[in-house]
Amino acid sequence: MAVQPIEEITIQRTRIAKKRNLNLQNIRGEIVRITLWGETATNFEDNGIQSLLPPVFVALTGLKVKQYQGKPVLGSTGSTVYFFNPDIPQLSEYKRRFEHLKSPLRILPSSTDMYTGHAIGADSEPKTIDELLLLDPTLHKVSLSLPSC
Question: In angstroms, how far is CA 84 from the centroid of its own chain?
């Protein structure tokens, strides 16, 4: 699980909203981005998650689901509720299935840092698009989450 800090963004040039992105692994092993908005974003307890032993399971309800470039886009609504390690019959099965995932919560860089390059690091070299296209993706993996996903 990875969490971005809360950010304030301008929506349609008229209002400012708070948002926070989460990258979660679903039960099929796919990474899913969920954007929490407003109070849901500010109330999300990343400190509480850090105190739980991994793997941590999160059940979310009341999400808005859209599709963008063939991928699901999930966002919170006024009805969104989340539960950490919910008391459901499937939890013990999920814990067994994902027991190998022992990595702690990762804090992702903000979207601003991602776009301005602050998240990349001082030791990385700038590259042109042509140079990037020549790189082998399996040799140059970076665990960054881009907001355009």
Answer: 15
pLDDT tens per residue across span 66-110: 998 888 889 999 999 999 999 999 999 988 888 887 777 787 887
Quote the CA–CA distance of 75 and 37 in Å, as a whole number: 7
Q: Which residue has the tokens 């971005």?
A: 4
Structure tokens at 20: 């926070």
Q: Return the bridge partners of 21, or none.
A: 35
What the chain holds in terms of domains, given with CATH numbers, is 2-134 (2.40.50.140)
- Rounded CA gap, 81 and 62, in Å? 7
Do 22 and 7 touch, CB atoms closer than 8 A? Answer: no
Dist. CA 39–CA 36, nearest whole Å: 8
- Which residues have a Cβ under 8 Å from the Cβ of 71 and sit 6 or more positions away? 149
How do residues 20-30 score in pLDDT, each as one tens digit? Answer: 999 998 888 88
